[in-house]
Amino acid sequence: MSKNILRTINLYKKYSDDYVLNNINISIKEGDIYGLIGLNGAGKSSLIRLITGLTAPTNGSIELFDGKSQNLSIRKRMGAIVESPALIPSMTASENLEVHRLVKGIPGKESIKHKLSLVGLKDTKRKKVKQFSLGMKQRLGLALALLGDPELLILDEPTNGLDPVGVIEFRELIKKLNRERGITILISSHMLSELSQLANRFGILHKGRLVEEISIKELNEKCKQHLLIKVDNVNRAATILENELKTNEFEVKHDGTIKLYALLDEVRQVSQSLTNNGLIIEQMTPMGKDLESYFTSIVGSSNNG
Amino acid sequence: MGNLIKSEFYKLTRSGVFRFLFTVPFISAIILSLILNLSIKDTLSFNLGNEFSFISDSGEIERSLNQITLFKLTVIKNLPTLILIMCILAAFFISNDFTTGVIRNTILSGTSRTHIFYGKLAVYILGLIIITGIFPLVVTVMGTMLFDFEGESHYSIFLYIGRSTLLYLLHFIAISSIFMLVTMILEDSGKVISMTLLAFLLLTVGYKSLDHIPLVSTFYEYSVFNQISFVFTKRLTPGEILVSIISGITTFIIFTFTAKVLFQKKEIK
């Protein structure tokens, strides 16, 4: 079983009388790409600020790297972009990296060239950061975060301001870092469709509370387009689907319903086969949604609750 | 801590404001030394005794030059000038880290806030010393090379310059710690400059109208703002030296400690 890289335990953050984070318990396993989803003001950035030590929690604790040590220096194993990349505008890309290299005490300057090359900024040479586009600044922010080869990378809305091509390139780079270097990544975004292509686990934050923590597998299962069928004899219905309709793309659930993932455009044929075999159909409903609809439904129900 | 200081020094030396504040007095010092030299040798039509003369602190005309005169005359004791230089560097070297968010990167790197604070303060003070020290240093060194000084023995020159410089530095550092606190409170570079100058103006006006009150005048007399120029008095008694040292150290400890506590509790934007 992979170890916890990050775990928050009953985390609270209060400003004046308002709790911006309320009893947050999340856990991120080694190798995860964890997507933090939430509307503006949901508490994503506040949570990231607590994790990165920019602010202190009102209550609760944060365990990093399996909770082995709460020493400050453990944060050297992390890299982060919080809110927007923090850069010195009057310096070049490599000078900005040099400042951070010196702070971290990383020997040699090769790491600077390497990181600039990794994020596609090796040709910026003497160009000052103030002349960079927003996308270039985001890339440089990522290079800064990657300096020192962190085990945990925390990215707060990293695709803000990137054009569509930039978003795709950024996504591929994140995937590559996770796949090839095994970097665990916590990424927050309001671009849910983007996160759904990147993360393997999600935490949905709403009004400072963690509404749901869900894996991509569970999410796909919940969001996958299917026909929800409820009949009076579920075993017989399963046999008919296999033998007569020649599909095994269905699941028999514990509640006696069937989730049929195939033949979605042939609802009439499915219903006809079942009724022709004497089954009584109590329900046959097309189900499934994308991440955004799922998120909206979760947040909506949370609002109603 | 060593890594932090290296990083801060790297930032300082690449700061355009620092380079400007360093270059101007450096070039001015060389030009002044050459003008003085040429005028003494009557190559230029200056005459130190008549048209070209220095006014000392006491208002007397200095007709002869030696290292002490040069050093005394060129060290920045003028409070408004010092405050202007200190607040400009504080605004561009410290505040900018808050404005750009660069301070976040340092915190994210897993360095303790105490170390970050002291690293920043140390390099800020070092930067100020370089900026303000370059002018008297270059003038005095060039003066020694160019002029044939007579009169004072090297021992008394060394003693005077050494004692004055150390006491001056102590008060200089104490005033710098006040700016560190101001920057920690205000963060924004524009606010640091405008509020500091406004506060200085109000305090000056306030002091002028209240200096007849013994408590106010005594407080000012022992404050670092007065002591920084007082230490250049030719003869200081051991008692005066002790008072000066206590004034500088107390101010430094109070303001540095307050600024550090504030930074440790600060919510970094």
From TrEMBL, chain A:
Keywords: ATP-binding, Nucleotide-binding, Transport
Pfam families: ABC_tran
MF (Gene Ontology): ATP binding
Stretches assigned to the ABC transporter domain: 6-232
Keyword Hydrolase listed: no
Family note: Belongs to the ABC transporter superfamily.
Protein name: ATP-binding cassette domain-containing protein
TrEMBL record, chain B:
Keyword Membrane: yes
Keywords: Membrane, Transmembrane, Transmembrane helix
UniProt keyword Transmembrane, yes or no: yes
Taxonomic superkingdom: Bacteria
Transmembrane intervals: 20-40, 79-100, 121-146, 166-185, 192-210, 241-263
Protein name: ABC transporter permease
Annotated organism of origin: Fictibacillus barbaricus
